[in-house]
Amino acid sequence: MTRPVRPRHAATLIAWRKAPGGPEVLMGRRAARHRFVPHHYVFPGGRLDRRDYDAPVASALQAGVLESLCASCSPRLAQALAFAAARETWEGTGLSVGDPTRPELHHLRYALRAITPPASPIRFHARFFMVEARHLAGTLQGNGELLDLAWRPIAECLELPIVDVTEFTLRRMQQGGLPAAQPVVFSFRNGSAVTRRERPPA
Predict the structure, then answer these.
(1) What is the mean pLDDT of the segment spanning 2-13?
(2) Residue 84, CA distances (Å) to 25, 81, 93, 156, 193 in order
(3) Confidence of residue 22 (pLDDT cuts 50, 70, 90)
(4) Which class would CATH give 8-197?
(5) Residue 103 in contact with residue 129, Cβ under 8 Å?
(6) Distance CA 28, CA 148 (A)
(7) What is the pTM of this model?
(8) Which of the listed ranges 76-85, 115-124, 141-150, 161-170 does the model predict with the highest average pLDDT?
(9) How far is it, in rounded angstroms, from Cα 96 to Cα 123?
(10) b/e for 48-60, b at 16 or more Cβ within 10 A?
(11) Res 16 pLDDT > 60
C-alpha cells in the first residue's frame, strides 16, 4: 500500500462583500497548467512560504482567531499562515489587507481548515481565513494565477466547477454560517468527507 503524501501547509482567503442579493465572494479559475485542481474555481490562496514566518505585519491576529488556529499549530505558524493568505491574495488579485507589505491581520477571521484526501498525489493542510471587502485596498487585477477573476453571488459560484471543500464553504455562507460560526475541520475518512468542530487547546 502506497504511503499517503504528507500535506503541505497552505492558506486561503475568502474575500466577501455585501450586495443587494446577498453576499458575493471573490473567486477565479485555476489555469490548465496547474497540477492541483486545474480548471476549477477557487478562492485566492497558496502554499506557505518560509519567508512568511518572519514577515512584518501592521497588526496581529485577534486573540480569539489566534486561539482557534492554535488548536492545530503554534502561534508563530498561525501568524505565518495568516500572512500567507494575505500575501497570496495580493499577488493573485491585486487586493491587499491594508499595506501589501505589512498587512493588517486583525481584519481576518478564521473559518475552517481542510486536509486534502490521502489518495491525492498533491496534498495540502490549508487554513481558510475570511475578510470583508471593505478592509481590502487596491485594484482587482489578476497576475495569471487565477483566470476569470470576479466578485460573484454565492448561488452563481455553486454552479461553477468547484471542489468539495469550496462547495461546503459556499453553502455554509449561503446558510448564514460564516463568518461568525465556530471554525470546523474538513477532512476525509474512508473516501468520504467528514467535518468536526475545531477545538481550541484546553
Answers:
(1) 88
(2) 19, 5, 14, 27, 26
(3) confident
(4) alpha beta
(5) no
(6) 5
(7) 0.92
(8) 76-85
(9) 27
(10) beeebeebebeee
(11) yes
Q: What is the pLDDT of residue 33?
A: 73
For residue 25, give the amino acid letter. Answer: V
**pLDDT tens digit string along 118-131?**
888 888 899 999 99
Question: Where are the domains positioned within the chain?
Answer: 8-197
Q: Residue 62, Cβ neighbours under 10 Å: how many?
A: 15
What lies within 8 Å, CB to CB, of 4 at 6+ separation is 118, 119, 123
Cα separation, 97 vs 44, whole angstroms:
13
Q: Are 63 and 69 in contact (CB under 8 A)?
A: no
Q: What is the pLDDT of residue 111?
A: 93
Residues near 28 by Cβ (< 8 Å), separated by ≥ 6?
41, 42, 44, 92, 93, 142, 145, 146, 147, 148, 149, 150
What's the rounded Cα separation, in Å, for the pair 199 and 202? 8
Q: Which amino acid is at 35?
A: R
7 preceded by a cis bond (ω within 30 of 0):
no
- Distance of alpha carbon 32 from alpha carbon 122, whole angstroms: 16
